[in-house]
Amino acid sequence: MPHTSGDEGHAPSADALDHPDYGAANLHRSRGRSRKRRLRVITYTALGAVLVGGGGAAYAWSHLNGNLKGTDINAALGKNRPDAGHDGAMNILLLGSDSRAGTHGKYGTGVTGARSDTAMVLHVDKSHKMASVVSIPRDTMVDRPQCAKPSGGTAPRERQAMFNAAYQVGGPACTVKTVEKMSGVRMDHYLEVDFKGFQKFVDELGGVDITTHRAIKDTGSHLSLSAGKHTLKGEQALALVRTRHAVGDGSDLGRIQLQQTFIKALIHRAESIGVVSNPARAYELADTATKTVSADSGLASADKLLGLAKDLKGISPDHMNMVTLPVSYDAQDAGRVLPLAKASHQVWQALRDDRPIPKSATENSVAARTDSPVSAGA
To answer: Largest Cα–Cα distance in the chain?
Structure first.
C-alpha cells in the first residue's frame, strides 16, 4: 500500500503499520474495515453487561464517577448538526483507538498518537428491543469536515481523507462530526476504549467463549487457535479482534467479521455470569468498565451509564443486526475502500427512519463476500 503516514490529516498506511519495525505487525491496511484491534464495542458490552447491577452506596457511585473521563462534544460541534430524534431511538458512536499508552511497547513501537481503528454506529430503536450496528471501515475514503484541533487551531476540510484520520486530527469530536456528515444521522453519544482497557474487561469477565470452524494462525497478531471450542482471556481476545492476515482476503473486512462475532460472544458471556442478580459482581465489572471507557459528558457519570445499560438490557444478540457499511475497493488504491453511494444511503436512511436495515443494502458490498470463521459460544 503506497500511502504513508505524514500529513497530520492522514493516518499511517496499512503496510507501514504492518511492518515489524512499526509494530503490531497486522495493524491495518484495511481494504475495508474500520475495526481493527480493540473492537471498541467492548464499550457497548462494558455498558450493557457491566453496569446493569448497581452499587447502591453513595460512596460507591462516587468512586465510579471518579473513574470516568468525559468530553463535551456538543460544545465542540455546535448547532450545525443533524436533527436530534425525539421518539426514544438512540445513536451511539463506539470507538476503538489504537493508543498504545501503558502497553510498554507490547504492540509495537514508533506509533505515536491514536487513530479510530474501530468505529461502529449503534442504533437502538425506539422500543429499546432491537438494535442495528454499522461498522465503518477505517480506510474508507470520506470528505472530512473542518475540525478543531485538541491542541488549538483548526484542521481545514479535506476531500477524500481516510476515515480514521479524523480522530488523529481532532479526537472523538472530529470523528463524531465526520460520521454525522457522511450519514446525516445525529450521534447522541460516543463511547471509547483502547487496547489495555479491552484486555482488562475481558479478563474481568473471566474470558469469552468462541468456536473456530477452522484453525487460525496469524503471525501479525500472534493468534494461534486450533479448530474447536475456546475460552479466550484478554490477551488472546485482543489478538483475535486484531487478526486479519489469516482470515478473508487479508484486509480489515475479515477482521470486522471476527470483531462482530466476538461482540455477540461477549454479550452472551456477560449474560451467563448473572450480573443482574449479583450486585457485588456487577460493581466489580462496573469499576473495571468505568476505568477503561471514555465517553461524552452526557454519559460520563455512573448513574447515566447505568440508565443506558438498563435501556440496552433487553437487546439480545439475536435482536442485534450487525452490518459493515457497503463499500467497494478503490480502483486507484486497493488498500482503500469507497462507500457505495446508493447502498450507503439506504443504510443511513434506515437508521434515520428507525427501521431495520434492508438486506438489499449490503448484498453488493465487498464486505458481503467475507464470512467469519468464528461463531459465538463454545
So the answer is: 58
CA 358 – CA 342 distance, rounded (Å): 13
* SS3 (DSSP) at 374: strand
Q: What is the DSSP letter of 133?
A: E
Percentage of the chain beyond pLDDT 70 is 78
Task: Using pLDDT thresholds of 50, 70 and 90, give the confidence band for residue 1.
Answer: very low
CA distance 250 to 253: 8
* Residue 71, all three cell numbers: 468530553
94 vs 40: CA distance, rounded Å: 6
Determine the 3-state secondary structure of 355 from DSSP: coil
* Cβ-based neighbours of 262, under 8 Å, separated by 6 or more: 39, 208, 210, 237, 240, 241, 374, 376
How many residues are given for the chain? 378
How far apart, in whole angstroms, are the C-alpha atoms of residue 328 and residue 367?
8
> What's the whole-model pTM score?
0.79
Q: Which three cell numbers stand for residue 81?
A: 448538526
**Bridging pattern class, strands 189-193 and 208-212:** unpaired
Provide the 3-class DSSP secondary structure of residue 80: coil
DSSP-derived 3-state class of residue 105: coil
Q: Which element (helix H / strand E) includes 64? A: helix 58-67
**Residue in 328, 295, 330 with CA at minimum distance from that of residue 309:** 295
Q: Which three cell numbers stand for residue 256?
A: 470486522
**Cα–Cα distance, 354 to 251 (Å, whole number):** 31
Nearest to 18 by CA among 111, 88, 87: 111
Pair 12, 22: CB distance under 8 Å: yes
| Consecutive H or E run containing 8 | none
